[in-house]
Structures are given as C-alpha cells and as structure tokens.
User: Fold this.
Amino acid sequence: MQQLRPVLSSKDMAKYFFHAEGADSYPDEQGSDLADLEAVQLRAARMLGELLKEKAEEFWSDGLRVHVANQTGLSLFSLEVVTTRSPALGGK
Assistant:
C-alpha cells in the first residue's frame, strides 16, 4: 500500500529562490513555497532544462546555472551545464 504524504498548507512550506545565470543573470526575487528538498531539486532540474531549451545560444559560450537558496539566503546547491570542447576544435 502506498503511503500518503500529509497535505501541507503554505504556512508549513519553506520559501526557496531559484537564481538562473547564463550570459545574463536572472535573479528570483519572489521565491517559491515548496514542501521538501525533493520538490526543490525537481524544480531546479526542470528549470535548468527549460533554460537550456530557451537559452541554447548562451549555453555554448557561458554555460547555464541554477543556484538555489533558502529564505535566509543560505546557498543550498547549484546545478550547472557547461561545455568542454575537445582540443581538436581549438578551444577549451
């Protein structure tokens, strides 16, 4: 039998901020109320995927990054997509 999670109200959720970076910075000034770290990680991964689709040209020169912080500003983790070019292409 599948165990059900309790339904949380917004007062039981913590606020997280998802700051995106590429050639430009996209700070998250509103944040999102999420129930747990798993929800935060999924949101960050999906956000990075969307950035990769929308900002593919920035990816090749600057990489793309999602930095996650909690409501106190504590850095929790970052997801980053970068390129490493073969020396055969004459670049790093």
Q: What stands out?
A: Residues 36-82 form one domain. The first strand starts at residue 14 and ends at 21.
